[in-house]
Every structure is written in structure tokens, then in C-alpha cells.
Design goal:
By secondary structure, the chain is an alpha+beta fold. It is built from three helices and seven strands, in the order βαβββαβββα. It has helices at about 15-20, 115-120, 175-190, and strands at about 5-10, 25-30, 45-50, 80-95, 125-145, 155-165, 170. This is DUF1802 family protein.
Length: about 190
Amino acid sequence: MQSQNRIAFKEWGAVCAALEQGTQSVIVRKGGIHEGEAGFRVEHDEFWMFPTRFHQGAEQLQPGKSSLLNHPLAQEPASGKLNLALYSVVEAVLELKDPSQLTFLQKLQVLNEETIQQRFEYKNPGLFVLLVRIFRLEHPFEVDQESRYAGCHSWVELSQYFDTINLKPVLNPEQFLEAQQAFQEIVARSQ
């Protein structure tokens, strides 16, 4: 793990809450409208999670998961601020091109089938699924929101580097092994 990092990844606050709770260990990404012709690419293998609220709603989550919207990571922070509490290390990446594989994602993440299907079909059919190991800070870093962070793009370069030395894993090794095995089942079915 890097000792410091300034790269952040924008994701719905509800998904960040699920990652922090350990109920999700994947990130499902299509990419925003500002990703360019090539679309989303996994440009970094370690990054801070940048919780967003844009386009996020209970109707996009699986039944019984709307309480994630009440989690602090899913709430709007103090005016002009952003809390960096989660750090991700990418362990594996899968690019799904077959829509029949989408049903296998349901047990790995909190978005509902319709939302996953919409993401899959946006522009060119396909989705990236990132298996991530999530770490958290006991006391988040408070960062000023800057206008350059706005917009529909996945990656943000923060104004400064933040230390990763006090991070604690969300899942213990046995729990993460279970997440890896579930991810590998999807990989095996997609080949």
C-alpha cells in the first residue's frame, strides 16, 4: 500500500456506506459523460473514496438497502467540505460484456437490477467490476470541496496527498477471502 495518495474515486455515498460496512467489496463502474470516447478505465490501483450524492436515490438500491442513504457517508457533509474516510486497493478487475452475467452481481453489491442494467447499456454495452479491499480511518480527513471536483468523471486528483498509515481493514482476511471467492465465481462464469 502507498504511504500517501492524492487520487480519489467518485462513487455514490450509499455505495461507500456499503463498502464501509463490509456488505459490498466490489465497485461496478461504467463511467461518466466526461470519461471521453474510450469510457471508463481503471487508471489507479489505490485511491480514496470520494462519496457523492448526485443521481443517488433509494429507487436505485436493492430492496431493504435504502437505509444506506441515512449513513453519514451518504449524507451531504458540512457546507463546502468532503470527508475522506475510506481507502481502496484494487485486487482484481473484470470487464463484463455479456448481459447474462449481470444477475450474478446482485449478491456482491447494493444497486438494484434495473440500475445495473442501465449502467451496462449506457453508450457501449459493458461494465467494469473492481474487487476492492477497503480500509477506513477512525478520524476522516476533512477536505475543502473545489469546483474542479464537480462533474461526471470518476477520478479526482486532490489538492494534497493524504497519509494512509492509520488505515484499518474493513474486512478481516477470512471475510475478504469470501469476497474474493464470490468474485472469482463471476470471473469463471464470464469466460
